[in-house]
Design a protein that fits this description.
Chains A, B, C, D: Pfam families: TetR_N. Four copies of one chain form a homotetramer. By secondary structure, chain A is mainly alpha-helical. The first copy, chain A, has two domains: about 55 residues, Arc Repressor Mutant, subunit A (Orthogonal Bundle), CATH 1.10.10.60; about 130 residues. Helices cover about 75% and strands about 0% of the residues of chain A. The radius of gyration of chain A is 20 Å and the shape is elongated. Chain A has eleven helices and no strands. The longest helix of chain A is centred in the C-terminal third of the chain and has 26 residues. At the A-B interface, α7, α8, α9, α10 and α11 of A face α7, α8, α9, α10 and α11 of B. Chain A binds a DNA duplex (21 and 21 nucleotides) through α3.
Chain lengths: ~200, ~200, ~200, ~200
DNA sequence: AATGAATGAGCGTTCATTCAT
DNA sequence: GATGAATGAACGCTCATTCAT
């Protein structure tokens, strides 16, 4: 149907799997998971639907594979965080690295943010929940005041907001990201200092 | 929700429209918009799919009607806010009332939070975006530092987080809601004071 | 919904039945029978679908009633024709009157012309077939050459064509109708004269 | 039509598309377009409805494909006619070939004749109208008397009548077709001669 | 003379998935 | 490393029709 200029089906050297992931992620992020059909993905790649099934067993497996490939940094981050002392420095480093990880795989996280209902029903839902719990355990002081616990969690959420929600704030994305990070760091600091003072 | 004392077809005296809205909202919030079929809604109500079409012209109209019925308070809130002076008191009152409005129509807002990709493609998407922009304009000082703008916006977002995301924080919902509100108020105060100091 | 200026539902003095027929015929002729729904008819009249069922037992009965009301002249015409001698004058008078009758109830005949497949399955199909057969028996000389039989029948068909098909011929409708009539009369004359000569 | 020697699922080697067209045309011609459902077509072929959608994107595309495949001869005919001198011989040859083309694809033309209201709303409607206009331009002398213009057009219409309407005239179809052709040729001749005489 | 509320059947269409080749 | 051809299930939606009021 599409037919490229030189007649070749353009670089198809075993990288189809990757190309499927790329296109799928783009469409999932743009339109949502349910509204994106395998037909659509296949058409963009100029292959048949059946070809997708050569590389992935189900539609869900496509998103799962993306999740697994792209959230490795966050898994590592949590593992790293668990072994550190619960100091302010650690917490703030977590926030910094989390911000970086979010930015790195922005489309995936945008997708997860905007399709929570879907994600919850997918296999990745539980995994993701566990991760967030892991982060929470590192960043929150279990003996702290509830208000300060909320403040800490909200710091993480501020990072999400910075990426996905504040698009109609003027300013270039990188500056906004840095501003969000600064706010988040500040919130973590406040929560941490209150906790120490209260003891 | 509906409660049937006996096994009969229960009071069907013109309240079907409302019953459809109730069931639909519950299912939309639980499973998402696309994964909830009209068949499912109809079955729960023990009517046929066609009956739904007597009361609503399309599936989308069901969610639109819910949105219109349930977000009136927020519309009013914005209108009120526009006429107030841009003082700290005003901003904090906005936050307080917004928190209350969110809580009031929790299932709808949970739905919107968790189905953003879907909502964006629905008619309500634009309306909602406009509202958030309205809120932003009241709560943000356009001359403030970008960091403080983010802080203000993030305050609103903290309220969302308090309702929908922090479910696995221990503590009863009402206490968590109050804690979120406190954090949000504090963020608004900080943003406001920075702005004044800088002048 | 529609609501007229003075608040009254405009002249509804028992003429609803007629108004249903009018609107239905217009829509049937415009869009075809199957593509016209009772909902559409009801909406145009600003009544409910159920109201239609007060006046007609089924959708089919609406078209049947129109057929019966509007094709009486053709029935009469056939009855008259049967009692006349099979002269050229009779045949030509039939053609003239048929042309007039077609013009009189143009929308109905346009509908029947353009929805033959539908009409065939409706109750009126057989009736109509019988009528055409009646006309044929009057206008055709059974002993004539097949070519002349066709010529006679085609004369009738020319009248149809004049009304419904030749819309993109320039000239005002009345002139075209007269031209069609002239051609039809001429064809009948030719057929008749051949038959006489051959004897 | 298809003919199954044994009760098995018969030769399904890439001829399904054609088989769909065959069955669809038969049913469309018998019952009309709207009254023929895809379910019905699928059942006759012993495939599922979804299989139809592998071969055609919509129901409309089935009829469009039939139209395009079967009316090619008429398109060619018009093209040929445009390049000929406007002599009587040309006009009569057009009529002869048109008659042959109609006969060749009788079911399709019967369908179009009996479902004009439907066809008008389909994509093929405009194309068909254009063709008829093309034929008209060849066969009609624009300076001729309106009566003779009608006579020429009516000649074409006689051919239609010969195929579809005169079924209850006795005589075998081929003889009737020839008789219609003869009448049509005669009408064209009369129209042509009048035009010459008037000059 | 009409409405409000509903039904049952069916429609065209789309989807993820399968499997022989 | 793919395709061609198909399936089964479901979907949103529309229709003519019914009936108590």
């Amino acid at each position: 149907m599409v037919g490229t200029m030189d007649g070749t089906k353009q670089q198809r050297r075993g990288n189809t799997r990757q190309r499927i992931q790329d296109v799928a992620l783009q469409l999932f992020a743009e339109q949502g998971y349910e509204k994106t059909s395998l037909r659509e993905i296949a058409e963009r790649l100029d292959v048949t639907k059946a070809a997708l099934y050569y590389h992935f067993r189900t539609k869900e497996e496509i998103i799962v594979s993306l999740f697994e490939d792209l959230t490795k940094p966050i898994e590592d981050l949590i593992e790293w965080g668990r072994e550190q002392p619960h100091t302010l420095q650690t917490k703030q480093e977590i926030v910094r690295r989390y911000s970086a990880a979010l930015t790195e795989a922005e489309p995936l996280f945008r997708f997860m943010q905007e399709n929570q209902a879907t994600v919850r029903e997918l296999r990745i839902g539980d995994t993701f929940r566990d991760r967030m719990r892991g982060l929470k355990d590192i960043i929150i002081d279990p003996e702290a005041d509830l208000v300060d616990q909320v403040r800490s969690l909200s710091a993480l959420f501020t990072l999400h907001a910075g990426l996905f929600v504040m698009q109609d704030l003027e300013g270039d994305p990188e500056r906004k990201r840095k501003a969000s990070l600064e706010v988040a760091l500040d919130m973590v600091r406040q929560a941490h200092e209150h906790a120490r003072r209260d003891r």
